[in-house]
Automatic annotation (TrEMBL):
<feature type="binding site">
    <location>
        <position position="107"/>
    </location>
    <ligand>
        <name>oxalate</name>
    </ligand>
</feature>
<dbReference type="InterPro" id="IPR006045">
    <property type="entry name" value="Cupin_1"/>
</dbReference>
<feature type="disulfide bond">
    <location>
        <begin position="31"/>
        <end position="48"/>
    </location>
</feature>
<dbReference type="GO" id="GO:0048046">
    <property type="term" value="C:apoplast"/>
</dbReference>
<keyword id="KW-0464">Manganese</keyword>
<dbReference type="Pfam" id="PF00190">
    <property type="entry name" value="Cupin_1"/>
</dbReference>
<keyword id="KW-0732">Signal</keyword>
<feature type="signal peptide">
    <location>
        <begin position="1"/>
        <end position="21"/>
    </location>
</feature>
<comment type="similarity">
    <text>Belongs to the germin family.</text>
</comment>
<dbReference type="GO" id="GO:0030145">
    <property type="term" value="F:manganese ion binding"/>
</dbReference>
<feature type="binding site">
    <location>
        <position position="117"/>
    </location>
    <ligand>
        <name>Mn(2+)</name>
    </ligand>
</feature>
<feature type="domain" description="Cupin type-1">
    <location>
        <begin position="62"/>
        <end position="216"/>
    </location>
</feature>
<keyword id="KW-1015">Disulfide bond</keyword>
<feature type="binding site">
    <location>
        <position position="112"/>
    </location>
    <ligand>
        <name>Mn(2+)</name>
    </ligand>
</feature>
<dbReference type="InterPro" id="IPR011051">
    <property type="entry name" value="RmlC_Cupin_sf"/>
</dbReference>
<keyword id="KW-0479">Metal-binding</keyword>
<dbReference type="InterPro" id="IPR014710">
    <property type="entry name" value="RmlC-like_jellyroll"/>
</dbReference>
Length: 230
């Protein structure tokens, strides 16, 4: 019995060692290794400031009470507050965003590759939802959707495509917390039809099963970025 306990303890110790030795989640799209340490210009996160010269301003951001401009085709504005706006967020794994909506404004389908999002509505009525990842052969991606009113909270799991739409006649405001200091955002339409250089029309025609002229038209549009980085 004592031998079994020691073996179990050894296995648990090995498991915990492997867990602690795993790589951290990336904080940008990629971090290419270089053979020469002197050639390195970026790390997974930010280089730390000397604690002796840290100031209260390093943990502060003003003005999130002010609405962002929704005068764009989407009728929405996302004001982001991440490590680039508050240096003190470095390594803390959280960030924030204010989302303003004009009547019938949309924060279009997008994904945060590095963060879960939790959203609370302050004003207005929002239709929100997210779509699951591919479930398996001959199965459909499932949509989880809900109408939110002031005080309601909804969670969008990390990496899943989601959206928010103001279905009311008045402005709407929501705040979102994200589980990364640099969550990233991929707006689906912008990425697929507005990339530079563009994705091959043959690829998109095949993927969406539409006429090539439809793809040509979509690629010719100006895909608006509704994110504001103070």
């Amino acid at each position: 019995m004592a031998v079994r306990i020691h073996i179990a303890a050894a296995i648990l110790a090995l498991v915990f060692t492997v867990v602690h030795a795993s790589d951290p989640s990336p904080l940008q799209d990629f971090c290419v290794a270089v053979p020469d340490a002197n050639a390195g210009v970026f790390v997974n996160g930010k280089i730390c400031k000397d604690p002796k010269i840290v100031k209260p301003e390093d943990f502060f951001f003003p003005g999130l009470n002010k609405p962002g401009s929704t005068a764009n085709p989407l009728g929405s504005n996302v004001t982001t507050v991440n490590v680039n706006q508050i240096p003190g967020l470095n390594t803390l794994g959280v960030s924030l965003a204010r989302i303003d909506f004009a009547p019938y404004g949309l924060n279009p389908p997008h994904t945060h590759p590095r963060a879960t999002e939790i959203l609370v509505v302050l004003e207005g009525t929002l239709l929100v939802g997210f779509v699951t990842s591919n479930p398996g052969m001959n199965m459909k991606n499932k949509l989880f959707t809900k109408v939110l009113n002031p005080g309601d909270v909804f969670v969008f799991p990390e990496g899943l495509i989601h959206f928010q739409f103001n279905k009311g006649h008045s402005n709407a405001v929501a705040f979102a917390g994200l589980s990364s200091q640099n969550p990233g955002v991929i707006t689906i339409a912008n990425a697929v039809f507005g990339s530079k250089p563009p994705i091959s029309r043959d690829v998109l025609t095949k993927a969406f099963q539409v006429d090539k002229n439809v793809v040509k038209y979509l690629q010719s549009q100006f895909w608006w970025d509704n994110h504001y980085y103070p």
